[in-house]
Design a protein that fits this description.
Structural class: alpha+beta
Strand content: 15-25%
Number of strands: 21
CATH superfamily of the largest domain: PAS domain
CATH architecture of the largest domain: 2-Layer Sandwich
Number of domains: 4
EC number: 2.7.7.65
Protein name: diguanylate cyclase
GO molecular function, one term: diguanylate cyclase activity
Keywords: Coiled coil, Membrane, Transmembrane, Transmembrane helix
Distance between the termini: 88 Å
Catalytic activity: 2 GTP = 3',3'-c-di-GMP + 2 diphosphate
Bound molecules: guanosine-5'-triphosphate
């Protein structure tokens, strides 16, 4: 017996020998490598980081075709490769458990599809959720989508495996689990699921994917629109102010007298937007004119910006400088930024005009621009917050620290982690190299997705429920006429309802009609057979009766033969013994019968015998009288009840009658006599039946010995 035969004959998993059998190892290895490679290289990206894996298809196929021993190798390799490539170690447990549970269920008569569905509903999905929650700490939404997608993913690969298994050549597809054939309802149900529900689910998943992508696009576009609007407004604000401050600077560079300066301030006041203070510094950084007084002054009594960054930067670049955010006491310690425009005369730096903007004002402006569903953060070149809807104004100028991350359910929009919360993120830079970021809650994308998933699961449940009802109903419709026929087949008449119920399909009608007509033929045949058997039985009984009678009777005299006599006489004898009834056993023998035979021939001898028999019958007519031919020319009588003397009288009457008979033989008168022996029981009821006959025989012998034509009597 080779290894293949061992595997085929032994139940799966019963022998440790087969576990390591080379064919199992090779099959497991091949299927496992195929599964692992499929998962590693052909995973289908679904939502964000959720990927669909189809490698388990090979493992399940291996399980059904080769059994658990091969499947263990296959799942070990496949899930290990998948877990490493996807960096999801818990997949090893999920896939390995799937194989073990499905194996156990297949062993109990479940079919593949059913087994996988039960595994994922009862164990797979809840375990996956728990393991992913423990290992990744992802949000509930992500866990839900991940679990649901994996379960639907399982439905897809098991469907593929089941369908593929059906299309395999019979030799290969012979199921390792030799279960009895499934019920028709189960087959219709799985057919419905395979052909309708799963394609529907697949299409629904594709639509959900598309819908999610569209939602993402819409949100991304809205966020981009907000980002651009904010940046446009800021650019506009800065450009307009820069342009007006330039006008002031030009005015001052042309006329450096006090009037020009005053005029410049006036111009600035009337045209500048959101500028809280306009200041003019000379080339040494000394504040020479301001629209709002400074609180800080140096020891000489004036404010000097000589060591300030804005001054040095503007002086050295001789170009517009927008400062970073800082706090300023002159503005109730609120954060500000400044726009600094150099006053250039030819190539000479002559001072600068500065406009100060309170960031709270900027914040208010942007607040009105941004959609309510989004948040925004504007940062300066040092990544300090200029304006933000996410923090309190007192926290402005703090650093905007976030890290780029990946959201499990977001496909294309970039996501960041800010203060441990993830956000969708769109950004751009404005004039002055400020960064405008618009943030939004990923739920804007994931909530519709989750809702779709809930709908999908509900839809799947309803569909499965509907199909199970339809399958049951349909199967019942198909099988009921057949079951009814099977049930009624032994009956003589087929119920008309069965014919009515069979009108489900053409095939069933034909089958029912064939069965009904064959039933009629069979019933007729049975009836005929029964009648024949009855007749034969009756005849047999009659023959038996006759045979019995023949066995009990003597053919010549029609009296009981010896065994017949014994049978009846014994019953009567027992009755007499029990009831102490007097009885007589009488033996009668024709005297010198040999002579009669010899003298007149055998037929005449027979005539003598029948004559004696008739005389005995004539005198012993009571129901209780039993007469038999005891052998040859010897007769036996048993007479019971009444008086013994009456028995003896009767014997005398018989012997007298025989003696008086004149038989004619060829006109010659022939006479005959008989001898008799009687044993009568009156008191001693201890003798047995045979002894009684023996005593009567002794009396007969006595009669013969003492001259014949006599009767000897013994009374006990
Ligand atoms: N015709 C005829 N003869 C029979 C039948 N059965 C027995 N026999 C004959 O009956 C004869 C009986 O002879 P035995 O036993 O010597 O008795 P027996 O001649 O009557 O002499 P005893 O009885 O001593 O008076 C035999 O010759 C038998 O062949 C029968 O059915 N028909």
């Amino acid at each position: 017996m080779n290894d293949r035969e061992i595997i085929a004959r032994k139940k799966p998993g019963t022998s440790s020998l087969t576990f390591f059998a080379v064919p199992n190892l090779l099959f497991g290895l091949n299927f496992g490598v195929l599964g692992g490679m499929t998962n590693a290289f052909l995973g289908v990206p679904f939502f964000g980081s959720v990927t669909l894996y189809f490698g388990q298809f090979f493992v399940l196929l291996c399980l059904t075709v080769r059994g658990i021993n091969s499947a263990i190798f296959a799942v070990a390799i496949s899930s290990l490769v998948t877990a490493i490539s996807a960096n999801e170690p818990y997949l090893i447990i999920i896939f390995a458990l799937e194989v073990l549970v499905v194996h156990a269920l297949l062993h109990r008569g479940f079919f593949l599809f059913q087994a996988v569905v039960y595994y994922w509903i009862i164990l797979g999905a809840p375990l996956l959720l728990t393991l992913t929650a423990l290992t990744s700490g992802a949000e509930h939404d992500v866990l839900f989508v991940n679990g649901a997608t994996r379960a639907l993913n399982a439905l897809m690969y098991v469907t593929a495996a089941a369908l593929f298994h059906w299309f395999l050549p019979t030799k290969l597809s012979r199921n390792h689990y030799q279960n009895p054939p499934p019920k028709l309802a189960s087959m219709i149900f799985s057919l419905c699921l395979l052909t309708v529900t799963l394609p529907a689910l697949l299409i629904a998943l594709i639509f959900i994917n598309q819908a999610a992508n569209q939602t993402e696009q819409v949100i991304a576009q809205k966020m981009q629109a907000n980002v651009f609007e904010i940046s446009a407004n800021i650019n506009n604000l800065l450009n307009q102010n820069i342009s007006n401050l330039h006008t002031v600077a030009n005015l001052i560079s042309l006329n450096k007298n006090q009037n020009a300066l005053q005029l410049g301030l006036l111009v600035a006041k009337s045209n500048l937007q959101m500028i809280e203070r306009t200041s003019i510094y000379n080339k040494d950084g000394v504040l020479i004119l301001t629209s709002k007084p400074y609180t800080m002054k140096n020891v000489h009594g004036y404010y000097s910006a000589k060591d300030k960054e804005f001054f040095n930067h503007t002086r050295s670049s001789k170009d517009v400088y927008i400062s970073d955010a800082s706090f300023n006491k002159d503005f109730e310690d609120t954060p500000i930024i400044t726009i600094n425009i150099p006053i250039n005369s030819g190539n000479e730096f002559e001072g600068l005009v500065q406009g100060t903007i309170k960031l709270t004002e900027l914040d208010d402006l942007i607040d009105n621009i941004v959609d309510k569903e989004f948040s925004y953060v504007i940062t300066d070149t040092r990544n300090r917050t200029i304006a933000s809807s996410m923090i309190d104004n007192t926290l402005l100028v703090s650093n905007f620290d976030f890290e780029q991350t990946e959201h499990d359910l977001i496909n294309s929009i970039s996501t960041i982690l800010y203060k441990n919360v993830s956000y969708l993120h769109e950004q751009t830079t404005t004039k002055g190299d400020w960064t405008v970021s618009v943030l939004s809650d990923p739920k804007l994308v994931t909530t519709p997705l989750i809702r779709h998933f809930y709908f999908l699961l509900l839809f799947a449940c309803l569909l499965i429920l509907a199909f199970s009802v339809v399958a049951k109903h349909l199967a019942k419709k198909i099988t009921r006429p057949l079951e009814e026929i099977a049930e009624h087949y032994p009956n003589t008449k087929v119920h008309p309802q069965i014919i009515e119920d069979s009108k489900v399909s053409d095939e069933i009608v034909k089958l029912t009609n064939t069965l009904v007509s064959s039933h009629a033929v069979m019933n007729d045949f049975q009836q005929q057979l029964k009648e024949q058997v009855d007749n034969k039985t009756r005849q047999l009984k009659q023959l038996n009766k006759e045979l019995y009678s023949l066995a009990q009777k003597d053919g010549l005299t029609q009296l009981l033969n010896r065994s017949g006599f014994n049978r009846f006489a014994l019953t009567s004898y027992r009755n007499c013994i029990r009831n102490h009834l007097p009885m007589s056993m009488i033996l009668v023998d024709i005297d010198h019968f040999k002579k009669i035979n010899d003298s007149y021939g055998h037929p005449f001898g027979d005539k003598c015998i029948t004559t004696v028999a008739k005389i005995l019958q004539k005198h012993c007519k009571r129901d209780t009288d039993i007469i038999g031919r005891f052998g040859g020319e010897e007769f036996i009588l048993m007479v019971v009840g009444g008086e013994i003397s009456e028995h003896h009288t009767r014997v005398k009457l018989i012997t007298d009658t025989i003696r008086s008979i004149e038989l004619n033989h060829k006109n010659q008168i022939v006479k005959m006599t008989v001898s008799a022996g009687i044993c009568s029981i009156v008191e001693d009821f201890t003798s047995d039946f045979d002894a009684l006959i023996k005593y009567a025989d002794e009396q007969l012998y006595l009669s013969k010995r003492t001259g014949r034509d006599k009767t000897s009597i013994l009374v006990r």
